[in-house]
Sequence to fold (102 residues):
Amino acid sequence: MAVKEMTSENFHALVSGDKPVLVDFFATWCGPCKMLSPLVEQLAETHAGQVTVCKVDIDQQMALADQFGVESVPTLVLFKNGQEADRLIGFRPMPELVKFIS
Fold:
């Protein structure tokens, strides 16, 4: 399962399912985002069926970033039942990411 591109238009459809949704708020110019991106993609593969993984480019989707108060990137937000359940800010190693979505 690939990482899905999230926009203001498809946001509610993506987070309203019964599975948790991990959203990676990133920017193309952000060094830590570039380091985190392959881990997020790997997480989408290894945990397919357990969690939906989405990415939001904050420069393309400013309204969505503002809506969730994203002030620094990378920011990972975990949604459960359509509501924000938790968030991580900054680069994190894979074991922390796996624990975060559990």
User: Anything to note?
Assistant: The two ends are 18 Å apart (CA to CA). The chain has a mean pLDDT of 94.
